[in-house]
């Protein structure tokens, strides 16, 4: 009997500035190196899901935020060896200055939702399209 595999849970907080621009990070290594993504990470064992999203945002960007309403949930099939389920939260009460901190992201930049660079994750594209559709 083969060992069953289960997907990892990924989380992200979507940060939009006062100009309506979204914060994206340029991947420093691994899957999609050199491409952009919504800053994200994995839920650790025993960690509450919203706390995981807040921790990941803080570790990668230095921003402190509250994970608000769920914006999207998608299955991620881009890497067949490492499947995941992603949950994107709306960022609320955002504080601090965005700075690439932990080495996972080479850079952070703000982009207008209609002028997004090449993305690492297909599901980020779905989320950004959804966001764009809600404001137009």
Task: Characterize the structure shown.
The protein is α+β, with helices and mostly antiparallel strands. The chain has one domain (8-135): Alpha-Beta Complex (Nucleoside Triphosphate Pyrophosphohydrolase), CATH 3.90.79. 20% of the residues lie in helices and 38% in strands. The protein is built from two helices and seven strands, in the order E-E-E-E-H-E-E-E-H. Strands 4-1-6-5 form a four-stranded mixed sheet. The mean pLDDT is 94.
Summary keywords:
single chain; 136 residues; alpha+beta; Nucleoside Triphosphate Pyrophosphohydrolase; four-stranded mixed sheet; three-stranded antiparallel sheet; 7 strands; 20% helix; globular
